[in-house]
C-alpha cells in the first residue's frame, strides 16, 4: 500500500508508523545511546549481523524516520542524513573516491559545492573536472579518464537556474559505467524525482525546501540502488572490508551496498551526523512539502510574469517562463512547477539594485533561499563582493542581478512590495 501512496501522503505519513498506544507524532529521541540486556546482541550489532541503534552518531530513531520519509519520496533503497548539505556532497563522493580518483562535475554548481570540489577535495588528492553542462555528450565524454568515479550534477543550478538534461547525463554515466549523482535541493522530490530519469545517487541540502522554514541546517544522501558496482572499479564497495572482519558490502547488503557503507564507515569515522532535534524539526517541515512547493512555484511564476512587464526591470530569469533557455527541459522534468527561485536585473545596475533591495518591506535581505518567507540577495554587493567584476561575470553574476526566493505569502502582497521598491 505504501508503495502506491502519492507524494503528498508520503510527505505527511511516511517514515513513521506508530503501533497501538504509541505517540501519533514522531517523537524526538534526544538520546545518544541505547540499552541492551545481552552482550551477544551488542556484538552482533557491531558486526552488522543485526539491525538496531547503538549510538546516535551512526543512527537514531528520529533521524531514521526522516531518512525513511525522504527515501520514500525519492523512491530509493536507503538514505543517510548528514549535518549539512555540504556534508552530504562530501560523503557522497568520499564513499567511492580517494586520493587519485577523478570526478566530472557540471560547472554551474552551487558556490559552496564548487569550492569543496575545486579547493578542498583537490588538497586530499581528488581531482574534479568542471564541464559546461551545455556541451554535447561526446564532448563531455572526452574528459573521462580511467580513474573517473562519478558525475556530479544539480537538477536546477543555483543561481543560474539551468535545468539538468537528465537524459544526456544519464546516457554518459551509463556509457562510462559511473554513477550519476544529482543534487536535487532546488526542486525537491515533489517537483522532480531524479531516479526516474537515470540518476543513481541523490543528495539534498535539507536546510532548504525539505525543512522549508529556515530552522535547521542539514543534508541527506539517497541511494537509488540502481547502479552496478561490480565492475572492478569500486573495490571499497565490492571487496572485503578489513574494518568489518572482511565483509563485502555488495555481497551482504545487495542493492543498498553504497548507502550502508556510507553509514557504517564514513559516518562512523567522520561523524558529520544530523542531530535528532534537527531531524525532528525537519520532519515537521517536510509534512507540508507538497503544499509548499505548489505555492512556491505558483507565486514565483506570477512574480516572474509581473517583473517581465515592469518598466524598471531589465531582464527576468526563471525556467518556468517560455523565453527561458531551459523552458523545454523544465516542461519535461519539472511539469508540476519550476520551484521558488528566480533572478532578475533592475534597470540602472549596481546602485539601482542596492536601492531596490533597501526599499523592500515584506521580502527580507538574507543569505538563504527556500523558506516560507520571501527573501532577496544581491550577490554583487553581498556573497560575491570579494570577486572582481570580470570574475563575477564569469560566475554569471552581473552587477544588477538580484536573486529572489519567493515565499508562500499572498502573491498580491509580494507583488505590491516589489512594485513599490522598484518605483
Ligand atoms: C545550500 C545548498 C547546498 C549546501 O547545503 P548546506 O545545507 O548549506 O550545507 C548544496 N547544494 C545546493 C544546491 C544548495 O542550495
From TrEMBL:
Record GO biological process: cysteine biosynthetic process from serine; L-homocysteine biosynthetic process; transsulfuration
The organism's place on the tree of life at top rank: Bacteria
Keyword Cell cycle: no
GO (cellular component) term, any one: cytoplasm
Cofactor requirement: pyridoxal 5'-phosphate
N6-(pyridoxal phosphate)lysine modified-residue sites: 208
Keyword tags: Pyridoxal phosphate, Transferase
One Pfam family from the record: Cys_Met_Meta_PP
MF annotations from Gene Ontology: cysteine synthase activity; O-acetylhomoserine aminocarboxypropyltransferase activity; pyridoxal phosphate binding
NCBIfam families per the UniProt record, alphabetical: OAH_OAS_sulfhy
Family indicated by similarity: Belongs to the trans-sulfuration enzymes family. MetZ subfamily.
Oligomer and partners: Homotetramer.
Protein name: O-succinylhomoserine sulfhydrylase
Taxonomic source organism: Desulfonispora thiosulfatigenes DSM 11270
Amino acid at each position: 500500500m505504501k508503495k502506491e501512496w502519492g507524494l503528498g501522503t508520503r510527505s505527511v505519513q511516511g517514515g513513521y508508523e506508530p503501533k497501538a498506544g504509541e505517540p501519533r507524532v514522531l517523537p524526538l529521541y534526544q538520546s545518544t545511546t541505547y540499552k541492551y540486556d545481552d552482550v551477544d546482541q551488542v556484538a552482533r550489532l557491531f558486526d552488522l549481523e543485526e539491525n538496531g541503534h547503538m549510538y546516535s552518531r551512526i543512527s537514531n530513531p528520529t533521524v531514521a524516520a526522516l531518512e525513511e520519509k525522504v527515501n520514500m519520496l525519492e523512491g530509493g533503497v536507503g538514505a543517510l542524513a548528514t549535518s549539512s548539505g555540504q556534508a552530504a556532497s562530501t560523503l557522497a563522493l568520499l564513499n567511492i573516491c580517494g586520493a587519485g580518483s577523478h570526478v566530472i562535475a557540471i560547472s554551474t554548481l552551487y558556490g559552496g559545492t564548487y569550492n569543496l570540489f575545486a579547493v578542498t577535495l583537490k588538497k586530499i588528492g581528488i581531482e574534479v573536472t568542471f564541464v559546461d553542462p551545455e556541451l554535447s555528450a561526446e564532448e563531455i565524454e572526452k574528459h573521462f579518464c580511467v580513474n573517473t568515479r562519478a558525475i556530479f550534477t544539480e537538477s536546477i543550478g543555483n543561481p543560474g537556474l539551468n535545468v539538468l538534461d537528465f537524459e544526456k547525463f544519464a546516457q554518459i554515466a551509463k556509457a562510462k559505467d559511473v554513477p550519476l549523482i544529482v543534487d536535487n535541493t532546488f526542486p525537491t522530490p515533489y517537483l522532480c524525482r531524479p531516479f526516474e530519469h537515470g540518476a543513481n545517487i541523490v543528495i539534498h541540502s535539507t536546510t532548504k525546501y525539505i525543512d522549508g522554514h529556515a530552522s535547521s541546517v542539514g543534508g541527506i544522501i539517497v541511494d537509488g540502488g540502481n547502479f552496478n558496482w561490480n565492475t572492478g572499479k569500486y573495490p571499497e564497495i565490492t571487496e572485503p572490508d578489513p574494518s568489518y572482519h572482511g565483509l563485502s558490502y555488495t555481497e551482504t547488503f545487495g542493492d543498498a551496498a553504497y548507502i550502508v557503507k556510507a553509514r557504517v564507515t564514513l559516518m562512523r569515522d567522520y561523524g558529520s551526523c544530523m542531530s535528532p532535534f534537527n531531524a525532528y524539526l525537519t520532519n515537521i517541515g517536510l509534512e507540508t512539502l507538497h503544499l509548499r512547493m505548489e505555492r512556491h512555484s505558483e507565486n514565483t511564476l506570477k512574480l516572474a510574469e509581473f517583473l517581465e512587464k515592469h518598466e524598471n526591470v531589465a531582464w527576468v530569469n526563471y525556467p518556468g517562463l517560455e523565453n527561458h533557455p531551459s523552458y523545454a527541459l523544465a516542461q519535461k522534468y519539472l511539469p508540476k512547477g519550476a520551484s521558488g527561485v528566480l533572478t532578475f536585473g533592475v534597470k540602472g545596475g549596481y546602485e539601482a539594485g542596492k536601492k531596490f533591495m533597501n526599499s523592500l518591506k515584506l521580502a527580507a535581505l538574507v543569505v538563504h533561499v527556500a523558506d516560507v518567507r520571501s527573501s532577496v540577495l544581491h550577490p554583487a554587493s553581498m556573497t560575491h563582493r570579494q570577486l572582481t567584476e570580470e570574475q563575477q561575470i564569469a560566475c554569471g553574476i552581473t552587477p544588477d542581478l538580484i536573486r529572489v526566493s519567493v515565499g508562500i505569502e499572498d502573491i498580491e502582497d509580494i507583488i505590491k512590495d516589489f512594485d513599490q521598491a522598484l518605483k
